Amino acid sequence: MEKLQEIFSTRELALIIWTIIIIIFILIKVKFGDSLTRLIRAFFASKLSIAYLIMILYSISILSLLKFFGLWDFTLLKDSILWFITFAIVTFFKIDKAYNNNFFLEILNETFKLTLFLEFVANLYTFNFWIEFLIFPFLLLISLLKSFSELDSKNEITTKFLSNIILIIGLTYFILSFYKSFQDYHNFFSVHNMNSLILPALLSTLSIPLFYFLALYNTYEQLFLRLPIMNSDLKVQKKLKQQIFYKAKFNLIKANTLREKLIDFDVNNITDIQKKLDAII
After folding, report:
1. pLDDT, tens digit, for every residue of 112-140?
2. Of 35, 41, 207, 249, which one has the greatest count of Cβ atoms within 10 A?
3. Which sequence ranges are marked TM in the entry (predicted)?
């Protein structure tokens, strides 16, 4: 346990153990082996696996760059992996919503919110393992009850009460961490802690170009899937792809506009598609 606590905080260990317990319980009590197998296969489908590999290689490149400038070392590996799982993978599966630049501006907005700093402070110091282990199911229960209570407006008083409980627990965590940070301010303002604080923001910001091109690729892929319907001739399809790309190029907004409006269109020759493209954008 002591060796694990050198890598993970007591809160993270409690979360990991409870997650394992919940997964084991589900596997034992719920008969969904086939569904789980299909889900895993779908998650690691060939195209998705290629995307994961690209994201991993891109992330390694970013970390190498940060290491070159002294902003990353292997003590931040855990933080980097957590960022990849909680941000990169999640963002990848929301890439269908990237219709324009607002999607990426929202990423920046979330990245630099003050709440992230408050969360960092709150998570910097933790209680001992058993307190964290016992608090987790209580918090989970309260959160589930709150979510259920919010479904009916008649439960407004109950919802407010449960929200206050969560708020009190959160404030307790924050006050404890803030107090300990004040007592041990030399350690709080250490290079490692400062790098740990800015690392998610740096990784998220530097990953935007990757997600932009993934969104662009996804848009073009959906658009090009319609070409066989427009014209069955492979040579014509190739010409159509060239003209579509020439029209939108690397502009995500234009590509999405074409994806939305270039439908139910029978292409008889190349000049037809050019007129259609000119009419759309």
Report:
1. 775 566 566 656 667 778 888 888 888 88
2. 207
3. 12-30, 50-69, 81-100, 120-145, 157-176, 196-217
- Check whether 228 has a pLDDT greater than 90: no
Domain ranges of the chain: 2-206, 225-280
* Angle ∠(15,16,17) on CA atoms, nearest 5: 95
Residue 137 near residue 18 (C-beta atoms within 8 A): yes
Q: Which long-range contacts (CB under 8 A, 24 or more apart) does 114-117 make?
A: 116/200, 116/201, 117/197
Max intra-chain CA distance, the chain: 76
- Residue 56: its pLDDT value, please? 95
For the chain, give the percent of residues with pLDDT over 90.
16
Answer whether 0.90 is exceeded by the pTM.
no
* CA angle 32–37–31, rounded 5-degree value: 10
pLDDT tens-digit series, residues 84-98: 988 898 899 889 888
Round to whole Å and give the CA distance between 12 and 172.
18
**Over 80: is that where the pLDDT of 158 sits?**
yes
Q: Which two tokens stand for residue 51?
A: 């995307």
pLDDT digits (tens, 9 = 90+) for 36-62: 566 667 777 778 889 999 999 999 999
